[in-house]
Amino acid sequence: MRIVLLGPPGAGKGTQAESIVKKYGVLHLSTGDMLRAAAQADTEIGRKIKQTMASGALVSDRLVIAAVVERISQDDARKGFILDGFPRTVSQAVTFDDVLHTEHLELDHVVELQVDEKVLLGRILIRVNEAKERGIAQRADDNQDSLKVRLDAYRAQTAPVIDYYRARGVLKSVDGLQQIERVTADIFKAIDTAASPKVAMRR
Ligand code: AMP
């Protein structure tokens, strides 16, 4: 099963992706996590990724697509995956469709977590405080300035991805403002709905 989980920063994609992994046994692929790992490298590209991520802006499509394509070609992704944080631009979505098409694969579900933007800042601040309390290193982009850039990037570059999948009739939207367990239940319902159409390949 191949699933794409979309939603703005702080919508709870990571938490919900973990529940999906437990229930459906798919691999959790977070491009944010992949890029944070790549940013550790003491190389020019590593430093550039780190800088871009800390600012809250998006890393280049070329780089992210290459990382995703490489990752999904590995054996452990064969039985399926949930993509969390990808595609983040229409260009990524279109290229990803082409890649899947070439591999004779298709997406089974595209689920959007809908969260009012005003709530997001509060959620991220809670995450920052929890990380502080537990002595966990904080994300370099969990601060007011970067968050503004992340929300702007979401509005300008990622919201059109939702329209892209909606226009193709494959988008399932879930109210992400409910209790975590309710959101999870709604996602499972969306996934288990038998009539769920597969994402048609772009020709
Ligand atoms: P996330 O952990 O999903 O919130 O992502 C953290 C940061 O990683 C984002 O603000 C971007 O800088 C970068 N990033 C993650 N996924 C993508 C993507 N699909 N395209 C471009 N940049 C990404």
Largest beta sheet: what is the strand line-up?
A: 2-3-1-4-5
Radius of gyration: 16 Å
The residue fraction in helices comes out at 40-55%
Measure the end-to-end span. 22 Å
State the total count of DSSP E strands: 5
Classify the beta-strand content into a percent band: 5-15%
- Report the principal-axis shape: globular
The DSSP helix count reads 8
Tell me which ligands are bound.
Answer: adenosine monophosphate
Mean pLDDT: 91
Q: Provide the succession of SSEs.
A: EHEHHHEHEHHEH
Summarize the biggest pleated sheet.
5 strands, parallel
Structure classification: alpha/beta
* Unreliable runs: none
Which helices and strands occur, and which strands form pairs?
Blueprint: E1 2-6, H1 13-24, E2 27-30, H2 31-38, H3 44-55, H4 61-72, E3 81-84, H5 90-102, E4 109-114, H6 117-133, H7 144-167, E5 171-175, H8 180-192
Parallel strand pairs: 1-3, 1-4, 2-3, 4-5
Bound molecules: adenosine monophosphate.
Describe this structure in words.
The model has no long low-confidence stretch (mean pLDDT 91). 55% of the residues lie in helices and 12% in strands. Strands 2-3-1-4-5 form a five-stranded parallel β-sheet, with helices on both faces. With 203 residues, the chain is of the alpha/beta class. Bound molecules: adenosine monophosphate.
